[in-house]
Design goal:
CATH architecture: 3-Layer(aba) Sandwich
Strand content: 15-25%
CATH topology: Rossmann fold
Distance between the termini: 20 Å
CATH superfamily: P-loop containing nucleotide triphosphate hydrolases
Number of domains: 1
Helix content: 25-40%
CATH class: Alpha Beta
């Protein structure tokens, strides 16, 4: 079983800032939190000239570098979405926060802002809370944008009451949708 929380919104609304605040608060309470971030942009974490870069550029499909304190793994993908495999790597986390992947129906917090966008994009049955500077007339828990303590307390409540709990079969079904 996993505790998975999706944080969704449009670009530039504050997903990363919210997640940073949540992580800091939950770490104070002793929780191990992992984050999986989706981006629609191409990216590279490898530096030109480094050995792992040379290995990858020479044709290696998977490259890993390990030190006593960190591991980095790079895999070249071809029309493959490895989200399920990544979730499995986080099995030892108390909470997995997924940033982005707004089309997958995990339990979620959605961020809106008066000056960015106001419409809720999430299916109401997936939405456990709204983080915003707007008040909505909905029967859904709502938080101010920078209220990390109360948001984290609510996430902790959701974990303890299995609201965020999900098993492998449920994850696979969500990823098929």
């Amino acid at each position: 079983m996993y505790n998975i929380l999706s944080v969704v919104s449009y670009s530039g609304v504050g997903k990363t800032t919210l997640i940073e605040g949540i992580i800091k608060e939950l770490n104070k309470e002793g929780y191990n939190v992992g984050v999986i971030k989706h981006t629609c942009h191409d990216f590279d974490i490898d530096e030109e000239g480094k050995d792992t870069y040379k290995h990858r550029k020479s044709g290696a499909k998977k490259v890993c570098i390990i030190s006593d304190k960190r591991v980095a793994y790079i895999e070249e993908l071809k029309d493959n979405n490895p989200l399920y495999e990544m979730i499995q790597l986080y099995r030892d986390m108390d909470l997995i926060i997924i940033e982005g992947y707004k089309n997958y129906r995990f339990r979620r917090l959605e961020i809106t802002r008066e000056n960015k966008y106001k419409d809720i994009l999430s299916n109401r049955s997936d939405l456990i809370g709204i983080v915003s500077d707007i008040e909505y007339d909905l029967n859904i828990k709502q938080f101010d944008l920078n209220d990390y303590k109360n948001i984290s307390n609510y996430i902790e409540y959701c974990m303890k009451n299995e609201i965020l709990s999900i098993n492998d079969t449920e994850i696979k079904n969500i990823l098929k949708e």
